[in-house]
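Weekly modeling sync, notes
Attendees: S.R. (lead), two postdocs, one rotation student

Agenda item 3: backlog of single-chain predictions. S.R. asked that every request posted to the team notebook include the full sequence so nobody has to chase files. The rotation student volunteered to paste the first one in as an example of the format we agreed on. Action items at the bottom.

Example entry:
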Amino acid sequence: MQRRVVITSIGVVSPLGFTPEQIIDNLKKENVCFERSPVDHEVIGTF
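Predicted structure, as returned to the notebook:
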């Protein structure tokens, strides 16, 4: 039995945008899609 693969689409799931243009524009603008989590220093101590 021969197996076949069908690729129906190629895409990216990204918080930077939905289209290639949006992603490229946001990368050029150096937009970030994450931020540092708040830290409770009383629980883990100071850095």
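Discussion: group reviewed the output briefly. The helical segments are 20-28, 41-44.
Action items: rotation student to repeat for the remaining queue; S.R. to check formatting next week.
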